[in-house]
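Journal club side-thread
Mid-discussion, someone asked how the predicted structure for our own chain would compare to the paper's figures. Pasting it here so we can look after the session.
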Amino acid sequence: MSGWSIRHRVLLLALLPATLLTLSLGYFFTVSRITDLDQALRNRGIAIARHLAPASEYGVFSGNREILQHLADSTRNDPDVIAVAITDRKGNMLAHYGKVNKLFMDAALVPVSNSEANAEQVTVSQHDNHLIFRTPIIQTVVQVDDFAFESQPLAADSVGASNRLGYVAVELSRKATLKRQNEVLRSAALLALTALIATALLALRLGRDITVPIIKLVAAVDKIGKGNLEVRVKLERGDDEFRALENGINGMVVKLHTAHDYLQEQVLQATAKLSYQASHDMLTGLINRREFEIRLERALLSAQQQGREHALCYMDLDQFKIVNDSCGHVAGDELLRQLTLQLQHEVRERDTLARLGGDEFGLLLENCPAEKAMEIAEIMRLTVQNFRYAYNGKSFLVGVSIGMVMLNQDSDNVTSLLTAADAACYAAKDNGRNRIHLYEPQDGELAKRRGEMQWVNRIHSAVAENRLRLYFQEIQPLNQTLQGRHVEVLLRMLDEEGRCLLPMTFIPAAERYHLMPMLDRWVMENCFQLCASRFALSEAGLNTLAVNISGASLCDEGFVSFLTERLTQNTIIAKSLCIEITETAAITNLAAAKQFIAGLKKLGCRFALDDFGSGLSSLNYLKNLQVDYLKIDGAFVKDMAGDEIDCAMVEAINKIGHQMGLKTIAEFVDSAAILDKLKAVGVDYAQGNWIHMPATIDDLCPDE
């Protein structure tokens, strides 16, 4: 019934009880009436048999068959009597009436047991269309009292076979009774049908009165649910619950209509606001990078198709970081707002000034040749240079480095234009800041920078597409007292065609554009995952797992916190980890390096100073760094077999390291001769392609 409509449910609710009640009452009264008719026929048959039995006593006793025949014929007036038979005790027919067949005689002549000897006992046998009654004829005792004869029947317990004179059998027809019973059934069925029809009509009327308003209400609510707020409900009923529902729904629609109109207005306002926010910078009110690139795309299309010339300026504020660091970001934001107002006054109406992010601005000069573009760019530079910003009693001067690129028919795409402008801006900074640099395709320095900038996107794509790989190289102990297995983890990158790229291909760009903390974090994350899922360090026989960390990561608070937290959680890895820091990075960031080394050594980490010897002026700083290993610069090692000076340098660095209690490691061991020299000098460890070619990390501990 889950799919039934409310109308069908109401009809079922009204009809089902009435139908069950009607059928139950009809059944009860019909069965009762049929039973009464059957019982009446039985009672009449018993009465006839009981009447004939005593009356036949004398005739049977005296042998007067005329009396017995008269008694049998006396039943002819009863229409239901089929036959009557009076017999003696042996079953001989003494008198009869009607058609006496074998079935009747078989029932009439069945011997009666002693328990049936009572004169009141009438046996009844029922057949399809008739009933046969039989009762014995009992001899009574005659007493004479003052010449008055009084017959008295024997007591029931004294009646025996000798007291039975004969039998009376009566056969009654059931046809009339069955006919009357059928009439009762037909009448009952007719009455039940009439009652059901009347109930159905009443239920239909009742269901219509209930369901029609509900159906109207449901239809109205369905239309409202589909967004039609012009619907109004009109019922043809008086003041009742449906009227209350009608008023409630109509009132609700009015309120919904009002709310809908208000919401539509709010949505339009919010859409306009979102559209503005999507295309504008909330701090300065200028258009943002996304909208700027759309307009730049339009200008590029006009340059390519119509031969027009436009100019793109990429502007990066100089010394802006000083304001943020000394007065906070609030001061920096206010500087950007005030400076934006100054710049907008110098921009032509048809040009576009945008904030590209941070302290970087973009300027699109449409239909502007190079000479005019340089004039406008110079005005922008002077505007920034002459701007004085005061905050909390402090005064600041800022400058701007501007990189310019021209848009013409030879321009490629928006990405290459922005890359070229960015490279020109960095060239302006490299040349002394607060100046303008015009991009020229044949400029070798800019070409190199553009190449590095393209590597930025390639590095990000490689990380996102999981194209970075870990390799390892064995570090061989040269002293028999040194035990255990030592390896260095190396980073490789797969290019878009799946070719393996060495670090020096992409690391310079990563260092220049501050991507090293991201790469170092990726390396450490994968080292932790490797140690946790692929093998246990002790099972792999690893004593040292060396990993390089860049100088930029030493000063990156996020990276330092991440590494400290992970090593605190897994002290086993910490005790096997050796972090390699280049000599240059350590000296450049001495305070950060000292703090970094001291913090991780508490967790059990070891440290190696990489490329040591590239600047001997750093010897004074070596005492302040708590390192465990010195890695001798490979520039001295690779030629030491044939160059006495290089060999002397390796020997000197080795002695210095041993004097300070450090182990020494020689890199770039590419021949047996170099290895023999290192053993003779007394270097502790050797590493190079002759000892072990770098292999994928899967080979470090192959799956079983």
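Post-session note: Residues 284-441 form a domain with the Alpha-Beta Plaits fold (CATH 3.30.70.270).
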